[in-house]
Amino acid sequence: MKVLVRSERCKQCGYCVANCPRKAISFQEEISATGYRPVSIDDEKCIGCGICYTMCPDWVFEVLGEKGGDK
Domains of the chain (ranges plus CATH)? Predict the structure, then answer.
């Protein structure tokens, strides 16, 4: 599974960073047009668990390739 990040929606709340079990999410160095440091995902560490999707109040994440959906 892959997680898509819509960084333009990120408001730097940190819920995803704090709750990622693999520490695969971190804040980018660049500041977005909205004045926040959006998150990025390290695909090597990410296991596609979806906790970031569940925790995010701003719909930043989309989990692609759900189990049973890949055929």
Answer: 2-64 (3.30.70.20)
